[in-house]
Amino acid sequence: MLQDSPMYAYIPAKDMARARQFYEGKLGFKPKEEVADGVVYAFGRGTACFLYPTPNAGTSQASQAFWSVDDVDREIAALKARGVVFEDYAMPGERSAAGAITAGGAKAAWFKDSEGNIMALIQTL
Fold first, then answer.
1. In this prediction, what percent of the chain has a pLDDT beyond 70?
2. Which domain holds residue 31?
3. Helices (DSSP H) in 2-121: which residue ranges?
4. SS3 content of the chain, % helix, strand, coil (to 5)
5. Rounded to an integer, what distance in angstroms lies between the CA atom of residue 60 and that of residue 28?
6. Around Cβ 75, how many Cβ atoms within 10 Å?
7. CATH code at 106?
8. Which residue blocks in 9-60 are alpha helix, DSSP H?
9. What is the pLDDT, as a whole number, of residue 68?
10. Which residues of 21-43 are buried (b: 16+ CB within 10 A; e: fewer)?
11. Which end of the chain, N or C, is less surrounded by CB atoms within 10 Å?
């Protein structure tokens, strides 16, 4: 059954060199392996994503992926220090000093990668 299998995110990139510079330089990711013109990045608890070339990158108006973190505000501060710019969406909920929105039992913040993909940080409360 699919429910029992691991699930991984695909992250589209128009320009692989630019995207890798963002993910490896700004976010500090280390490539696990290069596969079919793309690159795999491994994360906690056996999860991973595949960054791959496509002209369709940045066309989704919804989040491509999210990281489940223990402290969204701390992650925002660390990423801003590396030059990551966070989005300021007009949404209901309480906004933290760092810019995260708390609503529906979670605290969240969003940023776009170099390709225009929307990524999120989520803290379950």
1. 100
2. 2-124
3. 16-20, 72-81
4. 20, 40, 40
5. 24
6. 18
7. 3.10.180.10
8. 16-20
9. 95
10. ebbeebbebeeeeeeeebbebee
11. N
- Tokens standing for residue 12: 């589209």
pLDDT digits (tens, 9 = 90+) for 31-82: 999 999 999 999 999 999 999 999 999 999 999 999 999 999 999 999 999 9
| pTM as predicted | 0.93
Residue 107 tokens read as: 């605290």
- 106: burial class by Cβ within 10 Å (0-12, 13-18, 19+)? middle
Is the pLDDT confidence value at 109 over 90? yes
Split into its structural domains, the chain has a count of 1
Cα atoms in the 13 Å half-sphere on the side-chain side of 16 = 13
Give the per-residue pLDDT at 39.
Answer: 98
Going from the C-alpha of 112 to that of each of 3, 56, 84, 122, the distances in angstroms are 29, 15, 8, 15
Q: Which residues contact 49 (CB under 8 A, 6 or more apart)?
A: 8, 9, 10, 11, 40, 41, 43, 65
Q: What is the pLDDT of residue 21?
A: 98
